[in-house]
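Here's what a typical entry looks like (Two-component system nitrate/nitrite response regulator NarL):
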Amino acid sequence: MTAITIGVVDDHPLFREGVSRSLAEVSDFDVVGEGASGEDAVSLATESRPDILLLDVSMPGGGLDAIAEILSRSPRTKVLMLTANEEVDTLSSALQRGASGYVLKGVGSRALAQAIRQALQGTRVISQAMSAKLVENSLRGAQSPAGQLTPREKEVMDLVAEGLSNKHIGLRLDLQEKTVKHHMTQILQKLGATNRTEAAIKWRDQS
């Protein structure tokens, strides 16, 4: 049986050692390295090319910032975030940067082993609590007026909020001024605003 190679990167020594010890007890798991920073994670990926790299978010060098470099150095490595951070924005950022999953600390050893196997099979692994938060955020965004805007309308509103005129928004987005005016008409209606200033205020409050 071919062993599943694993790297563990976390700046809390006791936690890191505990995770490594727990995983090493699984018959087909082989912990090939540890680290305490984003730089360590990149080095570990480069030198050992583990199947799975468990990576904390909050540590020197930043876990999120290391993801792209890790995958660049070792494309076959699956990055699985193992963190106490329960912010949905952080989860979204990790997934956008290429992480294969997001597991909260406090997970049991059996559940962590299962998450590792699922990630290796190509399944995106997200802790149940974080999945619930994602759904809640998605529903809240869809129900808010700002959530009803199209991607292009959101781009227009971002520039309106910066104080740009329709003409300058058109230049920035490569749109005709009359097209921008059409978008603004739709935006005002969706946001329930009577003018650009009111729309900008509502946009900032709801974004």
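The beta strands are 4-9, 29-35, 52-55, 78-83, 101-104, 125-126.

More examples are in the samples folder.
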